[in-house]
Fold C-X-C chemokine receptor type 2.
Amino acid sequence: MDDSNTDSLYWGNFAWDEDDAYNYTYNYTDLLPLPGTAPCRPESLDINKYAVVAIYALVFLLSLLGNSLVMLVVLYNRISRSVTDIYLLNLALADLLFALTLPFWAAYKTTGWIFGTTMCRVVSLLKEVNFYSGILLLACISVDRYLAIVHATRTLTQKRHWVKFICLGIWTLSLILSLPIFVFRKTVYPPDSGPVCYEDMGANTTKWRMVMRILPQTFGFLLPLLVMLFCYGFTLSTLFQAHMGQKHRAMRVIFAVVLVFLLCWLPYNLVLVTDTLMRLRVIEETCQRRNDIGRALDATEILGFLHSCLNPLIYAFIGQKFRHGLLRIMATHGLISKEFLAKEGKPSFVGSSSGNTSTTI
């Protein structure tokens, strides 16, 4: 059965609830016949759409408030702003842009895609860019920490103008990885279903969708993940061998940010890898397995969406300098007394061997 016949035979290739980073889920409205078997009948996912909408609304509010405060503190603190802070500033911007898309995805859950093709492309682009820029920025932070602690080099880490170009390159690469979604996305009106936001590439949709999945998963997730594991592995080893307790404490925020990112997005990507292997016939494809993957994608994508509001909470509970920076801004504008700020006390500044690369957050 060729791709064109397959795509015309079922709408299962069309991702009804495309709230995932790679836009490929399994909510079927038609029957998908597997070779030599009876058609697969979709099972309803045990996720209340109104509960999901409520989660999206909460994440939207927390992300909007938290990431705005993070950007405010970093931008306000120009004197001691570090290279890592610039990366974290861009990370907060990416999460903030993603948060702006959540009302659209919440409405999509309840009414279908009612916003037209242009908004379908723009909102999908923002979502994709957030994911790619997030992991690429974390990879750059890991390299910066690796150079600063393992090699104690200052050549790259102290030159802030290089960081601006690196961040610009990250945003550019994220846009390039997201362009296929932007180009091919459109509003589609399937039979017996509400409108969907879906990428349609004609007769070879199935084949091209696999390419669009494998390449971003490789360059936008797997390779940056390997870079982080390599850099942080050697960084931690160096810290423990040298008994650098202070530097280890200064790294707590960074390690927490990376750990939370992996906890939120790794399950979703592992499910996607399983799904990709099934579609490539590396593992056996069955109706039950397809429905199980559909449920897993729906559950893990919610976890991934939750990530956009978690970094500010990490800074607030672990990042002592972030708390002090926020209190200082509030004191400047008369929201708290200067006596309270003095009582709170300025936190100790833990530097690094790279000079101006310590973590302000």
